[in-house]
Amino acid sequence: MIRGSVAEAFDTAAAQWRDRPFLHILGETAHRYGIASGPLPYGEAAAEIAGIRARYRASGYGPRHRVGLMLENRPAFFLHWLALNGLGVSVVPLNPDLRPAELDHLAAHSEIVLAVGAGDHVGALEACAARTGAQFAVARDDAERIPATALPCARPDQVSGPASECAVLYTSGTTGRPKGCVLSNEYFLRCGRWYNAIGGACRVEPGAERLLTPLPMVHMNAMACSSMAMILSGGCVIPLDRFHPRSWWDSVRESRATIVHYLGIMPSLLLAAAPDGRDRDHTVRFGFGAGVDRRHHAPFEARFGFPLLEAWAMTETGAGAMIIDNREPRRIGTNCFGRPEAAIETRIVGEDGAPVATGEPGELLVRAAGPDPHAGFFTEYLKDAAATREAWDGGWFHTGDVVRADAEGYLYFVDRKKNLIRRSGENIAAVEVETVLRRHPLVREVAVAATHDELRGEEVLACVVPREMSTPARMAEVAAEIVGAALADLAYYKVPGWVAFVETLPLTATQKIDRAALKAEARTLPGSAACIDTRALKRRPSGTGP
Fold first, then answer.
1. Per the confidence metrics, is the pTM higher than 0.90?
2. Same structural domain, 386 and 447
3. Same domain, yes or no, for 120 and 161?
4. Is the CB of residue 546 less than 8 Å from the CB of residue 424?
5. Is the CB of residue 244 less than 8 Å from the CB of residue 31?
6. From CA 285, how far away is CA 293, in angstroms rounded?
7. What range does the domain containing 475 cover?
8. Residues 202 and 307 in one domain
9. pLDDT grade, residue 161 (50/70/90)?
10. Does one domain contain both 443 and 393?
11. Backbone φ/ψ region at 3: left (φ over 0), alpha (ψ -120 to 50), beta
12. What is the DSSP string of 116-162?
């Protein structure tokens, strides 16, 4: 067992809470995954993890190896993660929505030595290995024998301890390709400790909580916040395959959830449903999330009877700079995400890098208070020292988020400085989408920006300068062709939901895309004659879900 690891923390919890449920799989989720439903107690989970770990150990896996997991929110994800973590193996969660080119990049960049998949995902992983010639094996999550690795592992004493690598999570940046955030065991443990200690309306009772999350384990919210908070407090994680508005309240009631996690789109969809006499028939004490529409915040709480606690963090910051509006009086309906605790230092700066006046918007810079400003943050961007240095320029982590502070120190989200689109909780790099769209023979030039979407917060809009301008009828055909082609290389949520045909793109004096002008224009284009609505083409491969 690696000392100071997530797996060691789980073993401690299993010894104390042996008969308490660690996971609970609802019937709907079990049906969608084709697995068994019901609770999995800590003691039984510990035994399963020990068996899986023994198979990995026998096949030669150990410190400094990385293993990709395409297991979604199944129990297998938790079991394999904890089994590997106890051997010092780092995991790379793989999103099954990734298109082949995206998956190829992640597999090669992370240098995984094995990819573990569930069901149909095994075929996608095998195809990836064949396409790239990458030196990684593929195994099913329920395989009795795990392919041996010939690559040597480091001695455990060289990499053991809380600072050792636990996972690499990929997050979109502004330069196109997703960046790999290297996250240590301490990163995960600190996330759980922060959650359990923050208190106020976010109070966690040891051995009593049941946390329901529809968010994917490929993101830090579910993997680091939800999972670690429950492991460190003997609570139960209730993972859904994803958010299903029509059955959400049935899941909440059946699960007896005391905590739910959300993203901004969820309250909007739930409020859109007709009032029901059972709206308050649940055991939820609070919701933890971000991005609720300010217009829907107070109405949601009044109708459903529990607070939505708005929080802020990034994959890079972890609990090193996590902020939450958890104490009364909360600033409901104002885009407020709380006031930083004493363990966090913040600055709000303008374009010149100088602090702005109270109430004025600027970029949020953060760091941990004390002797180590990096405490709790990510370790680095994998294989990108320059990007890591740039993010920490001047000794502060540059978030790229524009916020403002009031006289009491409460922070309010305003916008994103970075050229990112945030659709239904997914960060999408405009440059990555532009790179794919620019390959299409009908596209002369293209620029991508966010436009407002009532349900998803933001949607991807592409301003396309076509090779030839067309009639409105032909524009719809061309837009569909461009989006259809993009779906072969991009996850469905990244492709444009709107395609606007324009004669020119806004440019700066140095002939670069004027991102500020493009962003302003993108908000006005939907509904105009030359802007084609392609949102109906954005579907998951299964054809379900928003």
1. no
2. no
3. yes
4. yes
5. no
6. 20
7. 428-537
8. yes
9. confident
10. no
11. beta
12. EE-TTHHHHHHHHHHHH--S-EEEETT-SSPPP--S----HHHH-ST
Give the angle subtended at the CA of 485 by the CAs of 438 and 446, to the nearest 5°: 25
**Are 287 and 152 found together in one domain?**
yes
pLDDT tens digits, one per residue of 230-247: 999 999 999 999 999 999
Rounded to whole angstroms, how far apart are CA atoms 401 and 529? 33
Provide Rg for the chain, Cα atoms.
23
Map tokens 């180590």 to a residue. 372
- Alpha-carbon distances of 519 from 459, 462, 514, rounded to whole Å: 12, 11, 9
Q: What is the pLDDT of residues 440-463, one digit of tens each?
A: 999 988 999 999 998 888 999 999
CA proximity to 381, closest of 159, 173, 90: 173
* In a shared domain, residues 218 and 85: yes
Residue 347 token pair: 């600055």
Average pLDDT over residues 364-369: 98
- CATH code of the domain covering residue 71: 3.40.50.12780
Question: Residue 414's pLDDT is what?
Answer: 87
Closest CA to 337 of 314, 353, 369: 314
**What pLDDT score does 422 carry?**
86
CA distance 6 to 378: 16
Distance CA 32, CA 30 (A): 6
